[in-house]
Structure formats: C-alpha cells, structure tokens
Amino acid sequence: MPFLSANRVRETATTTGTGTFTLAGAVTGFQTFSAGIGANNTCFYTISHRTAAEWEVGFGTVGSPATTLARTSVIASSNSNAAVNFSAGTKDVFVTVPSDQMTQSNLIPGGRLSLSSTLAVPTSDLSAQGTLYYLPFLDSKIEIYTGNRWITYDIGTGISLSLTGLTTGTNYDVYAIVSGGAAALSTTAWTNATTRATALTTVDGVLVQSGTTTRRYLGTIRTSAASQCSDTAAQRFVWNYYHQQRRPFYRQESVASYTYTSTTYRQVRGQTANKCELVCGVMGSMLDMTVHTYTRNTTAGEGGIQTIGYEAIGFTAPPYGFNIVAYSASAAANAVTNTTGRCAGYPEIGFRTLYWCERQINTGTTTFFLDVYTGIVGWWEC
C-alpha cells in the first residue's frame, strides 16, 4: 500500500460513527480519492463536519473499489485526538498535510539519553543509577515510524525507563517506541560484550531495529550492576547516537611514589581499577587520550614507560588510530624526568577497556611519582 499525495482531492460523505467512511463524490472543482490517490493506497486526510464542531486529521487507507476511506491512524481531532464519533450531516473529506509534517524536515530527533533527570549532558559523575532518561537537547520532538509513515511526538520535559530487571555487565540498545499513544523507551540486550543480538537496519536512512521497524534506535547503554547504569569519568556507559558530546574521560591516582623494576607491562601500581571503560553502539565516535608520567631511575638513560592499552594490558592502539608511549628516561642517575604520550582513534562497537599501563625501560630501579599531573586524561564522544 504505497503512500501517495495529490492536489485538490475532496469529496463529501454522510457516514456517521467512528468507522470507515463511504465517499459520495467529488466537490465541484476537485477530484475524487479514486482519481488522485487510487485503490489500496494510503494518504493523509481531513474530515470536517459542515454544521457540527467535529473534525479529524489522520492517516487513511483508500479501499477497493476506491469509494471508501479507512481511518487507519488518527493524528489530531476534536475528540481529544481520538477517533471522532461523527454525527449525521454532510462532511468534507479531503487530502491534507498535517501540521507536524510541515515542520518535519530531516527526521533528526531533538533529545539525548541521560542518567540525569534534568540534564541532557550531565556535569557530574552519575554512578549506580536505576533510571534512564531521554531529555530535550535541541528540542523536544522525535519522529517514530508507525509501519506506514513517520509521526512526530513531543516528549515534553522528558521520558524515562526503569532499568529494573536488566542484567549486570550487559549491553542494551535503547529504542524510542510508541506506547499508549505517546513516545516511550525500550531496550534490547546484546548477545555478549561485543556482539549485537538484533541487528539494526534503516527506514528512510534512519536506524531502527531490524524486523521491528517501529523501534527507533537512540543509542546503547551498559549496566554497571544489576538494574543499574553508570556515567562517570572512568565509566562512560551511556552512548548517544544523536547529538554526541565530548565527555571527560580519565583515571588518576594520588599516591606519592612507588617503585617497579619489571619490564613486563602491568596496570599502574598493580591496581585493577586503573582503567577507563566505555560502550559504543555504532563505530565512528572518536576517543582522544593522553598519558603523563614522572619517573626517575638509579641508572642514567633508564626509567619508566606508561601507556594506554586498548583492550589489553600493554602497548596497543584502537583501530583507525595511533598510540604513543610516555617514555621517561633519566638524563642522569636519579634525575626526575617527565613525558607525555597519546592514544587516539575510533573504538569498535561494544564494551571496550583502556588500561593505564606501566613498565620499566630496562634495568635499575625505577620510581614512579603520581600526582594531579599524572594519569590518563582525555575525552570520548558519547
């Protein structure tokens, strides 16, 4: 049933009730639905009672033969936007363009996923949150596909979804759906940390869930615990497909100093918490991190190395990216030296880890110093 539009399509009808309208012929100077739209096709319509305060705008289906119009989906009406129970009398039935379609241009929604109930871009760490929100960012409008066309919904000050029942350590795609005539949120779990269980596809270039195109893709989250999600400087577990922002991404420590004499990479100070974690729904978001270190060694020319290990403890880089170690060698015995490295690129989809790593260059005894100027610091687009 193709969706069609045509100029000057207008007929009269005397149908009553909330059902399908029987069309009685074109108004003078106009054409019939049969001529303009055709049997078994769909279109936008308006029904207006000539003598009563009854009207309805919707999405309809022309019958076969093309003398009926089924009121498939009501968009707006004099009956609180529900189907009108039309009374006796003559009505005008014509092809129209609903007002929401006049402002719908690029199908880009105006909101962002957030763990804050008030801020589309949170300004502080939010850990162990039990509710996900979709809040206005550019505006409060979102278009959702109904199976036949896109309908614009207004989320007002925002909509929310309880995370109760979500499994710990799991990725979930987040979708905008229609529930009870309004926009709502829904999730679908991934198979594992890097593999999506249900593929994404497109309708009119917009990402939707494959096989259920009425579920519009908004982004991906990862649970930090059962029924909870976190969005912190070290755990960016809310990823937006639309309106991404460069969010602070870092891990630091404040231990004064310690020694490490091995040439084997480990997480800094041997602490498993020295890492940053993220989730990515669609590849293309950029990561840019620096690592800065101070060291000294008992032997001239020796010292320490710190680096960012992408998905491994060691010197590894993200795909389509690069990594430069912070190589800090003492100019003289026991001389303190500082240096900076950098890791940047485009992480693959799924759950990804960046490890803050270190090792000694070769020999001697290396002392590492940690203060507010050391650590892995940067940003992630999410």
What can be said about this structure in brief?
The protein has 382 residues and is mainly β. Helix content is 2%, strand content 49%.
Which segments are poorly predicted (pLDDT under 50) over 5 or more consecutive residues?
none
Top-tier CATH class of the largest domain: Mainly Beta
Give the CA-CA distance, first to last residue.
Answer: 39 Å
Mean pLDDT: 94
Tally of individual domains: 3
How helix-rich are the residues, as a percent range? Answer: under 10%
CATH architecture descriptor name of the largest domain: Sandwich
* Shape verdict: rod-shaped
How many beta strands in the DSSP annotation? 32
The fraction of residues assigned to DSSP E strands is over 45%
Rounded to an integer in angstroms, the radius of gyration calculated over CA atoms is: 30 Å
The number of helices is 2
Give the class from helix and strand content and strand pairing.
mainly beta
Largest sheet: 8 strands, antiparallel
The CATH topology of the largest domain corresponds to: Jelly Rolls
